[in-house]
Amino acid sequence: MRAPAKIAVVGAYGAGKTSLIHAAGAATGLPSAHGTPMRDPAGGAAKPLEEATEPELVQLVVRRLTERVLAEAALPGAFLSDGSLLHEWVYATVRLAVGLHPGPDVPYEAVRAGAGPYREVLDHLGREVLHRALSGYDAFVHLPVEFPLGDPVPPISEHFRALSDRLLLDTLERAGATVHTVTGPPPQRLAALTALIEARPRAVRPRPLPSPPPPPTPEDHRMHAIGISQYGAPEVLALVERPRPSAAPGEVLVRVLAAAVNPTDLMLRSGELGPYVAAFAPPHTPGMDASGEVVEVGPGVTDLAPGDRVMAFVNPFTAAGGAQAEYVAVPAGHAVRLPDELPTREAAGLPMNGLTAHQALALLDLAPGATLAVTGGAGALGGYAVELARHRGLRVLADAADADRALLERLGADVVVPRGATPEATAAAYRAAAPDGVDGLVDAAVLGAPALDAVRDGGALVKCRPYELPETRGIRVHQAFVVDHPDKRAALAELAALAAGGAVTLRTAALLPAAEAARAHALLERGGVRGRLILTF
């Protein structure tokens, strides 16, 4: 007698999958495999999906689809599953495409077209991982959303659920899966699923989506870029050839004249950020900010034109890679026209750190006259935070070594705090300068937990890199992730205008040819660089 098939119960969040598979399993004796909550990248406590940042969300989906979910699909025997592998991929795709609470005017085509800066990650998962995992199931039971959401289900909009449900069915249909839809109240659904289990459906495997090889690229459609083919020291960086991108709908193609080098690039090169590009074949191209000239605009772009000088934020965690290339295609909302007062190449030092400082101040939301501490104020990020805070009417404290005191005073720091030999000593120096504690703190230097000692009770702190902090004294803790900045276009335009007017300073440590990328990494890694190291193309 043939064993029952492996059956996955699928549907949008709140459709009642979990209760149904438990009830059906109890009625038929079929074991159930229920997905567990996603966890944060460090493997800590469960974190609600709607609170995850874009990088966290993608990293979680990559790991769970390639580890736990594939193992579930390979289990011998028969079982009922809640299809968590499919739901996590769908949830990430929809959320990254249209946001957690999309409006009613968001078309489904926006979901199918891709998920913002991470569309390449999710497309790769859909083609190379998701469908391989789906092949472990014999039948899919679809539960339409027929009942209102209730506690303890996270607050997801009805439109979001409708988009998720449609993408579920669309994905299964394109994969060639057999889908059985059960409707009605819970008893009716249970009866239908029980009957399907007892009928022992024959295995009908989904077919993988085809992934055709890319067409040959003519010589005039290739470009040079910085490439990371293996992780390691600066010497692993090399100039490589890559296909030249083109401007998709809503994008602009920029001929890059300059791209800044950031600590994020060092972390990508060393492998620390390797999980963010694990879905893509090397070489990986680093770089998060560029300046140059628009050479092509995609359909739908009306505010930029070929010939415009621009600076742009570039997301390196994609198949196309980051800013350190002769050409980059970016969403039009990630690029702004440069004022005449700003030199093109030096402007490459502004987007990423400027956006991060802008986001940090927005998260703190301090009123004029409030006191702000900026750790590492002489650095690129810290310097922009000092200048933006000063422009917003905040009283600014920043720490520095003796050699950087004059620099911080020029940037506008009201009080220069002596940097201690340890994070604890630096935090104590801030507390001595502001005995009641500061209202807010931007931890650009990554002091970590000791930075909390400088903040008053009920104050706020912004982390500029992920690390754990204890809850203490009612201090609100925020995480700045530049990819999550809600309005990059407006922020970049403001930064450009402030730089043109002199309120924000473009500090360039050196302009280096792209072939000297390894030297730039070594200099930044050594420390003490004041201003931006910028590669020219």
UniProtKB/TrEMBL annotation:
Q: Name one GO molecular function term.
A: oxidoreductase activity, acting on NAD(P)H
Specify the Enoyl reductase (ER) domain's residue ranges: 232-535
Keywords from UniProt, A to Z, are: NADP, Oxidoreductase
Note one Pfam family from the annotation: ADH_N
InterPro entries the UniProt entry points to: ADH-like_N (IPR013154), ER (IPR020843), GroES-like_sf (IPR011032), NAD(P)-bd_dom_sf (IPR036291), NadR/Ttd14_AAA_dom (IPR038727), P-loop_NTPase (IPR027417)
Q: Note the superkingdom of the native organism.
A: Bacteria
Concerning PANTHER family, the annotation shows: QUINONE OXIDOREDUCTASE PIG3, QUINONE OXIDOREDUCTASE PIG3-RELATED
Its recorded name reads: Enoyl reductase (ER) domain-containing protein
**Species in which this protein is naturally found:** Streptomyces subrutilus
